[in-house]
Design a protein that fits this description.
The complex is a heterodimer of chains A (about 70) and B (about 375). With about 70 residues, chain A is α+β, with helices and mostly antiparallel strands. Helices cover about 30% and strands about 35% of the residues of chain A. The termini of chain A are close together.
Chain lengths: ~70, ~375
């Protein structure tokens, strides 16, 4: 399954994003970044499955993110 | 024997749920929140988020717009200095605590802002009119306490919020004496709510909150490590990081979360009416004595605080006598020079402030003692 890594600007937004996605049945995991971008908080959401829906939910709720990687697992 | 009626300063005792939360936080949440990916840091970070989320739900805000501070003074300084950084006109009320009045006065004395003081009246519409009259084209913010920490007078904050919204002015509210006994939702016109965590919210001392609706940008007055954007020398703009530099007090935040849960379980209306009943009984008992002045007006509404004086006795001396009998009440000026100037209370007042744990019996016993002291002075 495709895993999208979304870098978050703050830990607070990372948890908020995780809760929003899980509450809507989207599988995701909050993890510490291995290679953090300069503007990130060092945490990412690893989203499995419907990325576009996940992105839409986060945007709708004002949760900023940057898509870092797309890959399979 | 200690009978505490100084709960407007800080509530004591704390609920059992708060004591347990503090012990649990010391035991389990020993990592540094938002810094690091190991189990201890992650567990602590999640705990802090849960506290932020509880506060946000309680006041109708978003979790990221909840900033943990050291106390209400810290929150008010962040708000006032952060909003007024580039100058402009500020209006504060004549009943502000020094936590708002001093940072405002400092900015004005340094020539950085223009400051006006709106007189609080017993009649709410007169109060709102006093604020309205002072608004200018460059008015950037209004600071008003939700309830006076001296008299307990409840301010027309919803009307002031509306007035500010009409003029696109940032409304900064000091909720130190109202939060926990008045149902407050920031959507009712408050742009920035500053409050203590250790008073009506029953957290431990060293806790405060700044809660914003995010409409007005608050420039940070303290910069430092936030766990985010670590390679940049610029403070992050995103909340809460922008205003929360340095290691947060996770233990304190967890105590505030537990305090709010205590209020939610008990019911804010139940707590408020319990304390109000005690205050009304206390006032009724003191009103029997002509030698006692009570600083309340029939035109105004009050949170559970009663300020009073005994004729011929300084407030400190009276509080000292009461302390000899185990009663804890605060005398003097309550860090509110503007309020005492308006009241004309040259030697301050004695302040009675019950909590959810206070009893009517204790209040009546205290009133009897005060009446005896007042009668003795009359002789």
């Amino acid at each position: 399954m495709t895993v999208i890594i979304m870098e978050m600007p703050s830990y607070t937004f990372a948890v908020k994003g995780e809760k929003l996605l899980k509450a809507r049945g989207i599988s995701c995991e909050l993890k510490r970044n291995i290679n953090a971008s300069p503007g990130s908080c060092g945490y990412s959401l690893h989203v499995r499955g419907d990325f576009s829906r996940a992105a839409e939910i986060l945007k709708k709720n004002g949760v900023p993110f940057i898509v870092k990687e797309r890959g399979g697992s | 024997m200690i009978i505490n009626f100084d709960n407007a300063a800080t509530t004591y005792p704390k609920p059992l749920i708060v004591k347990k939360a503090v012990a649990e936080a010391v035991e389990k949440f020993g990592g540094n929140s938002g810094r690091g990916g190991h189990a201890l840091a992650m567990r602590t970070s999640r705990a802090l988020y849960s506290a932020r989320s509880t506060v946000a739900d309680f006041f109708g805000a978003q979790p990221e717009n909840v900033v943990f501070t050291l106390n209400c003074t810290h929150a008010l300084n962040l708000a006032i200095q952060g909003i007024m950084r580039d100058g402009g006109h500020l209006i504060i009320s004549s009943m502000e605590h020094n936590s708002a009045a001093r940072p405002a006065a400092r900015l004005a004395l340094d020539g950085k802002i223009k400051l006006s003081i709106a007189e609080i009246c017993p009649d709410d519409s007169a109060t709102v009119e006093n604020f309205r009259r002072l608004i200018r084209s460059d008015t950037k913010a209004v600071v008003c306490t939700l309830a006076s920490n001296v008299t307990g007078q409840l301010m027309p904050w919803r009307e002031l919020g509306k007035l500010c919204r009409e003029h696109d002015i940032c409304f900064i509210a000091d909720g130190a004496q109202a939060c926990g006994v008045v149902d407050i939702n920031i959507a009712d016109g408050i742009n920035i709510l500053c409050t203590a965590g250790h008073k009506g919210l029953y957290g431990i001392t060293g806790t405060g909150l700044l809660i914003t609706d995010g409409k007005y940008r608050i420039s940070p007055i303290i910069q430092g490590g936030t766990g985010s954007s670590s390679l940049s020398l610029r403070q992050p703009e995103i909340l809460p990081d922008a205003l929360e530099s340095g290691t947060p007090c996770v233990i304190g935040a967890m105590s505030v979360k537990a305090g709010i849960e205590f209020i939610q379980r008990k019911g804010i209306d139940r707590i408020s009416s319990h304390e109000d009943r005690i205050c009304r009984r206390f006032v009724r008992e003191l009103e029997k004595n002509r030698n006692i002045t009570i600083y309340r007006s029939p035109q105004s509404s009050y949170v559970p605080i009663v300020s009073f004086n005994v004729e011929g006795l300084s407030s400190e001396k009276l509080a000292g006598e009461l302390a000899d009998h185990g009663y804890c009440l605060r005398a003097g000026f309550h860090c509110a020079s503007l309020a005492h100037t308006q009241l004309g209370t040259e030697s301050g007042t004695v302040r009675f402030a019950p909590s959810a744990f206070s009893t009517e019996e204790d209040a009546v016993s205290l009133a009897e003692l005060i009446n005896n002291i007042a009668d003795r002075k009359k002789l």
